[in-house]
From TrEMBL:
The keyword Hydrolase applies. One of its GO terms (molecular function) is hydrolase activity. Keywords: Hydrolase. Residues 18-203 form the Metallo-beta-lactamase domain. InterPro entries: Metallo-B-lactamas, NDM-1-like, RibonucZ/Hydroxyglut_hydro. It is an enzyme of class 3 (hydrolase). It comes from Paludisphaera borealis. Its EC number is 3.-.-.-. Pfam families: Lactamase_B (PF00753). This is Putative metallo-hydrolase YflN. The keyword Metal-binding does not apply. PANTHER family: METALLO-BETA-LACTAMASE DOMAIN-CONTAINING, METALLO-BETA-LACTAMASE DOMAIN-CONTAINING PROTEIN.
Amino acid sequence: MIRLADDLELLRGFPPFGFNVYVMGGVVVDAATRLGTRRILRQLAGRKLTAHALTHAHPDHQGATRAICERFDLPLWCGEADADAAETEGLIMARMPPHWLSRTVGPRWTGPTHPVARRLREGDEVGGFAVVETPGHTIGHISFWREHDRVLVIGDVVANMHIYLGYPTLREPERIFSLDPEQNRRSAERLAALEPRLICFGHGPPLRDPRRFAKFVARFGRRRSEAG
């Protein structure tokens, strides 16, 4: 694992930073696709774990969820508005915008569902971090914020990787995977206002450049003003 901060580690994967899974104060955050199950279970073996939490219920974040929960006897936690999708067969795909690409890769990446033991809301504590509700990409997307050292785990509100070409770059999530892009931009603006020093993404390497992140998110407001 890669240590990023106190009580925050990133599992190694292939491609590097393609589908990020974190251990955050004993809580496993996200689960990549079901194709990554063996590498995830191998890296988690022998660790003291307390729960498994999802930033959102999408195939590339939920894939190994049941395996993680069953292997390590962990409860599953998820944002309240995404919980039904996380535990209901077929609902993950049904809540994604219709597109040929998601219809093609989604069923290959989605893992078996698992009951949600705790439906997370704004301000709940998870592994020493506070839940921040950040809807848009999905209706129940959440992020995790630790104020004392200004560490942010952002899920898919913003990516730090070009998903088709693989190189690091700040990007909005692709419209074909996001239910409400404008609401997602507002969520990104809310997170940028926290002035995080370390931003950890669902896709892409961590970023320790608050100014770069703030500058990227500021474009959303300028576009909104120009359109209005």
